[in-house]
## 1
Amino acid sequence: MVSFESDYINGAHPKVLNRLVQTNESSQSGYGTDEFCESAKAKIRKAIGDEKADVEFLVGGTQTNSVIISTMLSDDEGVIAATTGHINVHEAGAIEFTGHKVIELGQKNGKLVPEDLKKYLEFFYSDESHDHMVFPGMVYISHPTEYGTLYSKNELKSISQICRKYKMSLFIDGARLGYGLMSRKTDVTLEDVAKYSDVFYIGGTKVGALCGEAVVFTKNNKPKHFVTSIKKRGALLAKGRLLGVQFDELFTDNLYFEISKHGIDMAEKMKKMFVDRNYEFFIDSPTNQQFVILNEEQFERIGQEIKFSVWEKLDGGRTVVRFATSWSTTEQDLKALEKVI
Amino acid sequence: MVSFESDYINGAHPKVLNRLVQTNESSQSGYGTDEFCESAKAKIRKAIGDEKADVEFLVGGTQTNSVIISTMLSDDEGVIAATTGHINVHEAGAIEFTGHKVIELGQKNGKLVPEDLKKYLEFFYSDESHDHMVFPGMVYISHPTEYGTLYSKNELKSISQICRKYKMSLFIDGARLGYGLMSRKTDVTLEDVAKYSDVFYIGGTKVGALCGEAVVFTKNNKPKHFVTSIKKRGALLAKGRLLGVQFDELFTDNLYFEISKHGIDMAEKMKKMFVDRNYEFFIDSPTNQQFVILNEEQFERIGQEIKFSVWEKLDGGRTVVRFATSWSTTEQDLKALEKVI
Amino acid sequence: MVSFESDYINGAHPKVLNRLVQTNESSQSGYGTDEFCESAKAKIRKAIGDEKADVEFLVGGTQTNSVIISTMLSDDEGVIAATTGHINVHEAGAIEFTGHKVIELGQKNGKLVPEDLKKYLEFFYSDESHDHMVFPGMVYISHPTEYGTLYSKNELKSISQICRKYKMSLFIDGARLGYGLMSRKTDVTLEDVAKYSDVFYIGGTKVGALCGEAVVFTKNNKPKHFVTSIKKRGALLAKGRLLGVQFDELFTDNLYFEISKHGIDMAEKMKKMFVDRNYEFFIDSPTNQQFVILNEEQFERIGQEIKFSVWEKLDGGRTVVRFATSWSTTEQDLKALEKVI
Amino acid sequence: MVSFESDYINGAHPKVLNRLVQTNESSQSGYGTDEFCESAKAKIRKAIGDEKADVEFLVGGTQTNSVIISTMLSDDEGVIAATTGHINVHEAGAIEFTGHKVIELGQKNGKLVPEDLKKYLEFFYSDESHDHMVFPGMVYISHPTEYGTLYSKNELKSISQICRKYKMSLFIDGARLGYGLMSRKTDVTLEDVAKYSDVFYIGGTKVGALCGEAVVFTKNNKPKHFVTSIKKRGALLAKGRLLGVQFDELFTDNLYFEISKHGIDMAEKMKKMFVDRNYEFFIDSPTNQQFVILNEEQFERIGQEIKFSVWEKLDGGRTVVRFATSWSTTEQDLKALEKVI
């Protein structure tokens, strides 16, 4: 059964896997002190155009969010996120587990609205009893968002300026960053992401790796004894090479961007297929996740041939479902889908 | 300067203080094992009409919320509260500090709406990926609420039934419980509070004591080794007698209810003063906290003679302010206020 | 039954209680912003001879240890304590509850040995894998210790120097500080405590107050937004005046030192009574806690007339028990004890 | 340079890696719901001879320790471990991060002594104030230990019986379990491990996998909503297949045991080489880690050709170093070592 269930349904991109095979017998020190990690870090620094950035590798997305947020916030602080933000909904309370509040703000198309952020901060600091409240210490945004949408460069810039003004960090969750950067409808570059954020990560799990996220600290702001804090959270991989090798390959010959572009090309074709057949979209997504509204008959029929994710039940028996493409989606997959929609 | 700033501006009710003086030289064991605590617990059990209830004393409101919620939730669970709930806004993240999420639901007049609660739970359990979400393990409501409003018996009953159905505890924050029970517009009794909740507390700090809240577990559900968990949270008072003596006196000869009634009588008089002068109210509160909207001139003028709390800025230079009465409010205080409004 | 069970068996010193009565009707703002707290802070600053020290009040000992340690350590750090340290044994894991390890070092007479501390630190920093270990960020000592013993000025100085060298804070738990300072066998003054430590507290609960500990930060090192962090831990008292009034009285006309001296005088008399009758001591304590070894017959006989604490079972049916004096111990109490030993 | 630095210096066993290649293009659901995980779980159940055991996969050792311990302890409980236990020394406080104390007991050859455990528990429950202490809720042992030593079946049985008596769980950290089971000097089988423990894990990272540990709950005691708790700790792998595929291969045709045996064979040969040359051993280890004492000249000389781990500095310029073999150690590696020792 062909699957558009998510962008982590397959193993690794063949080149990544091949590199693991080739390097398998090399003896390396553990915990990220191997030569592959070093090489990968250098390549990532180059890709973002910042030789001084600190790069660290972690295993997965929730882990990365939890480690970054909890090591960068101070005791009195929480993190601001959109109500739909992954850390607020689908991480089982991983941020709260570390003792910090997720401060919910409203969202529009899955995005935090700069004006809302500004209002919240003005309200907060005008409140006489704000020292009985959680101080806003960081803003979390995902790019692409959980709904596949993207911030414009102007939006990023605005949010970044607000963060500077209120001395908060801006953290960009880039679990699907590649698909965002390769979208046909974005003016945001990797350099922009590095410039406007204080810390962000380049997602590997959903873009060709078996696992792994590359965290980038861009403002000389890596937490003190960061390795110790990673270890303390059970997030330090013994064979750090597993992450180093994969990212080294992903950042060789533009592989990361090429396979992201492939995912986008597949998404655009898929989108057109739905558009041509007058399917209704739940949201207009310029990236690899497409949210389509199916009626009962469609839901039943398509579900017999194709795997997808169920997002939300609407009235009238309609359902929002997600079809995700990725680096591994094939023309054949699309044809199978086309046949049934 | 006369103060209506809050209901904790004065020391203790004279009878409570006097009892502390009288018992001062009695030697007692520490940590709540003294005879005053025993006596107070028995009186509270009698007052709620449940000889089997477990009663424990803690020092303050935030501490009580944090201890109760974090010891009654299991690892995967969070607590549902109204956006305006004290634990969600003004406790500096005390619940999250213990590793648990506060799950925000909308509010109406500071109250959780049974129907909203039901919808949320239906949505939660219908979501295929809800095991990536925080399980709702408890519902937190405050009675009176942060806006002085009260749940009706029917509302309490509905919420309680929903909790039973979804196997969640119902926790009633009674920091101002006395003022709720003595309100002229309530059909909820202390017995009802005990019956519909799984755990609640009877606030002492705001109702005549120097400090102290009496927690009541009504369903044979006191957490195992609760004293150890209290100690672990730095919440176990060495001289537990300080709490025992005060609650013993508060539950002697109906003192708790009488002084609560006095607070309500003062509030009703004060309310009438504002009504008679056509002041606008932010919300209709039947308890000891009255939220009045002042224009700039009023704000300035009254503020020179009377202390009050600033709640929220509205447009047009208007401000929501809170005037709180309590067991310690005097006719003289009201006269001073009357002169200036 | 006469009790030497602990130094927190009675209420408050009459002067302290009287002051609570006198100030009871004064209206004050909450959360420690009242005038009594301000006055008490000024008096404490004067007593330690440091006008710039930051003083804050908390309710009890375990709470104070937990708040101080968890707000002053960074994420990668733990606190070093003697195996017998209160935080390591009798606080139900309150430090670990905040996410930090108590690093146990051996003890001698209940005290941390400077040489042991030094060795541990040299070992730690020589270990190649110490970034997989908890960094030592603070040293915790109690003075007097849990066994009533005292550090000499030289010992304090040595430990302080080691802390400076390794960039660790020195935290002195002064739950019974008064009895230490008034001991007949100490060369340590309150000024020394302030000078050699980075933070310490002056215990009120065991020295004349109903509750309350005064935390002193002596190196311009009060954590940022400390009130928020206190609130987050459920440790912020609404009626902060309860602490302010008590400490204001304790630091008026040397009351704190006088009543501590009384406790010591009583302890010395008691000690002599045991010495004269050839009782064996478990440890030589120069403060208000005396640890005596009783045989079965003595244990039985004395226990029928006098309350004491059981410390440890030794072989041969012998038991280590503690007799504690305090500001509230009377000559009459001593006579009752003398009759039966 | 030939390395005996650790047992995680190489990638994966070729068969494991090959299996990853073969399964790479198969589409699978995420988060451990894939068919490889199912198959691997079934094979592990069969290997331990318990069809009802619950098996779950996690990524690494510290993570596994932290997840298991923190989800199985109740709020008032801590975990007992030897002073040398990995969770007590080299996990950067990962257990304390979750709010639980590691209760240190002395060790002999890296092992917890049943008699010491018994004494501690008798002492604990005889202490009148034990409700101010951390309740012992679990015993943690590693098998093999951090010093390569092994518990005998009798020792395991004794510890298990003590745990049953005091209602504690017994958790066996099997990060190197294969090398323990294949040791020439053990009477402990995999079935014994399952029988005597309440939960244990089969280490993959150090025995042929790129990463991964298989947790086995043997007493119908998997924590409720365990997936949620894993997610909450940032430990849920999106591509759970990565773990499933590897363990499925490791438990096909006895691979796990065969490659463990190879590691042991290599260790025994290596050990003989040192014995034959009269090197002094720090401890007598029957598994894949050998601890040898080198003098300055040896340390220098061998270090130029061979990588090893530095364990501890002794007096007289001597150093304890660790030489670890594994599934990936070759005869050629041994020859290189032999040449230089």
## 2
Amino acid sequence: MRKIILASTSSRRRHLLETLIGKNFEVKPASYMEDNSLFADPVQLVLHHSMEKAKEISRGLEEEVVIACDTVVVVEREILGKPSTEESARSMLKKINNQLVEVVSGLAAIDTKFKKININYEKTQVKIKLLTEKEIDDYIKTGEPIGKAGAFAIQERAAQFIEKINGCYFNVVGLPIYRLNIVLKGLGIYTLDYK
Amino acid sequence: MRKIILASTSSRRRHLLETLIGKNFEVKPASYMEDNSLFADPVQLVLHHSMEKAKEISRGLEEEVVIACDTVVVVEREILGKPSTEESARSMLKKINNQLVEVVSGLAAIDTKFKKININYEKTQVKIKLLTEKEIDDYIKTGEPIGKAGAFAIQERAAQFIEKINGCYFNVVGLPIYRLNIVLKGLGIYTLDYK
């Protein structure tokens, strides 16, 4: 069983990786700062970010497999960041209100022993229902939108705002499990061995 | 704030209802036994089951709002139950392998104070990837398929088997949050008041 390292600070990503391989991995957050202005194409952007994070954590290692992921929310070709204030959360919620938004994740896995790299991405369409001004205000009051890409957390209170999704749900939470399984298989790792 | 009762034994349903209204509800499991042979139409079946559960728990109450839900998995018009043995799990996993299955939930809410009833349903399509014999065997060995409708748990290890979904994710887990919000709104209940 290969030793796996997740290059992420996100407790959601850690939790999702546990559903795939149990607690058989280590967490080493990368210090790399994502810059959403680097590329206009979201796929190119998340692949770049996840690759940079995986490369940083791989440095000096010779045994482990390092996994990194980056997720962005896109509405009408605009990449939405993580709001830090109530005002920016409100403006973002107004942008996604009643829209079909796209959640795009990049995955990078580096096998530091056999010097192999596998990258891939996942896209999920998310239909946000028509929100009233009051619903937007009350959702902001819960504090949940702050620090969340696109100002919503599908696995928390915003669950009630999601009319439907088309694609992988776990991608929207922050780690596309189905795709990650394929990426790891490409490096010779069979996830059901990690029971 | 109206007092809400969830008529369910399922810890997954309890957890999902918490994402909608926090811990502001009580749980009272109904003793009603579901019978999947009652109707061939899954929508009719789950509406009947959820209505029976809600009616049972409502009896004698005059203040509370009672919520009940029933979820089934359908593949090629066959309603799949919950396997109790490894053999029945294997046979079910072979049926859903590489298929587009449909998850159907019925929701019933009874307002025992104002004598109002609201029922509704949700359908989600789930694409199961092509599983190898070894993957089916190894998944059965984890014990996860036993007792799960359709022999898989999307929020656990089977996450990696789900290529994509079309519809509400939470419906597949067992409580369609978006639809429940609408059902409660129909009874004059605004979920964001339950913060």
